Records
---
Amino acid sequence: MANTVKIPTDMLPEDGRFGSGPSKIRPEQIAALDDGATTLLGTSHRQTPVRQLVGSIKEGLSSFFNLPDGYEIALGNGGASCFWEIACASLITRQAAFGTYGSFSAKFAKSAAAAPFLEDPVIYEGEPGTYRLPELTEYVDAYCWAHNETSTGVAAPVHRIEGSKEQGALTLIDATSAAGALPVDISQTDAYYFSPQKAFGSDGGLWVAVLSPAAIERAARVEANVNLPGASRWVPPFLSLTSAVENSRKDQTLNTPSVATLIMMENQVRWLNNNGGMAWATARCSKSASTLYAWAEASEYAKPFVSDEAARSRAVVTVDLDESINAQQMISILRDNGIVDTAGYRKLGRNQLRIGVFPSVEPSDVLALTRCIDYVAERM
């Protein structure tokens, strides 16, 4: 029976974790938890040891992203989904325009639509497997889309919408599965925000945002109820971007964070920078992704889901399988052999594999994965 397929041990990847988030955590990050057991874990996040840890994360990210003058790193609890609510409360003044082309790029738009103090957002919708950027729209003060749509494996360009800066609008980019894996010019954004459970190899529950001076000023004005259209609103302290910035400047978070998450992230940021920073990380991800796309293009039973080569993600790779190969059965067999988290996004509902190729994943393991998939397919 197909579900009894045993892949030869010498064919298996050394590490079988290919999740699109949570993603592979390196052994060195776990060792860092042991190293911090007495000085960091179980201590106050407002005391020097943990604040030094946060300061190291900020410094490392500033170097990794080569921050323009005036840009700042802020962080807080709740993950990137919390930052959607923060943006609705503190960054969108009146109305936002969204590019939506998958589950996650659409969720921020839904939050804006539900905010009673904002006008209905303007939605520019693309089909899954493609991307759609928002267009210049009258009265809009924030343009929003995802750098990488985790659900479909689509990467979108990051640049200011022509005319938006003259309009006084902000550019807010969801970078959750892109940051650390895809190249970006931060100067083209006002908020480039993400959670650390993807390329930064840590746990979720934390949001990190690279903020422009304009974004920081916008939040301060909105929260101070300065005379801006639609600015008069209640901003809960937990959703106050101004509070987050003020605390981040002190190398701390507004509320108690998971110190373990911070430890693992700090270790990952140092590892990335020590190896060559963004250029190294993005080249490594591109190598792994190219291996998968080339394999799928040459396969008789697989093909890349994203048809536009320029839109194919180098962070999360989606591959459609022929109907003769049941993806769920393939995924189950791979898991039985220690190769895990290769399932497609459930709501997309395709006969598909989805493979995370973040920097922690060894390119040699990606090559081994393709051979294992072929081995199983021949026996299904």
---
Amino acid sequence: MITFKTNLGDIKIELDFDKAPITAKNFQQYAQDGFYNGTIFHRVIKGFMAQGGGFEPGMAEKDSREPIQNEASNGLSNKRGTLAMARTQDPHSASAQFFINLVDNDFLDFKNESVQGWGYCVFGEVTEGMDVVDKMTLVDTGRMGFHDDVPKDEIIIQETIVE
């Protein structure tokens, strides 16, 4: 169990080490190392997802470890309340950034091993605190530099607790 203590409240997360062992272990290691402490949810799109884990206040990007293998073919679906790894167009580029699905986003699920079909690996779910995640969608967002949908009032992960 991992708890993110944010300035909006606590979010408790359970990881799925059975279906996404590489991804869950990677996320847990970042959490244990304190990597997420002081990071922000830098992209929030109402009716879609809230993304965090890669930027500090002011949109300063953090250096992450090497990318991991995409485990999106694990049978888990991008349903409301699940956590999935964020990545670039390269299916195997996920490192530290993640997102929480605000609704069922089945179109993000694995379809096949093509660039368009790989999908986004679900590796955990919010077990408590979806009300906190939903509060994120009430914050006004805008453009900051090259980034859209950035909360104008920063949503900060103040502390990460790994149990």
---
Amino acid sequence: MGQKINPLGFRLGTTQSHHSFWFAQPKNFSAGLEEDKKIRDCIKNYVQKNMRISSDSEGIGIARIEIQKRLDLIQVIIHMGFPNLLMEGQTRGIEELQMDVQKKLNSVNHKLNIAITRVEKPYAQPTILAEYLAFQLKNRIAFRKAMKKAIELTEETDTIKGIQVQIAGRIEGKEKARVEWVRDGRVPLQTIRAKIDYCSYKVQTIHGVLGIKIWIFVDEE
């Protein structure tokens, strides 16, 4: 049986929760979704432009962005793995980011508040791990070596019980696209009570676009 459903949406209400918390009338629901997308895109673009890139990894280091909307307030919580990589001071950087997002929204009825939370174990987050793997593939590192190194980074975390990494596309410039994957530990994708973090990421290489998918089995309830 093929896995044709998003692992996060499959477990909403059991082991996964929404990243956006707000209510709206049916006619205003699409506008709220567009507003969330603008906020997330603006934050990612700002962090990417104002980040000090380290020598061994590249990426914005954002694990997830939570948005909570009230009548007159939009609370945004950014869960980052490396918040100290921002070039400016953290307080000044947040103020500039708030002004930038506020201009994109063009909303005077809502006050915007942005907070940054540090993720204790960055490489236990599939999004940050996918960015690391994408950087390795851009630098033409052998894909098997890159996948093995990504798995080794998660072995330092005791809470992870299994991980599966998949790369699809014209790997290493081959004419025919194919799918390569490797698994370490258990990854029960059909078990709803299993808490699985999932990420889908695209990377542009000299041979074309490669797709990266990462499943991380954290715990089972």
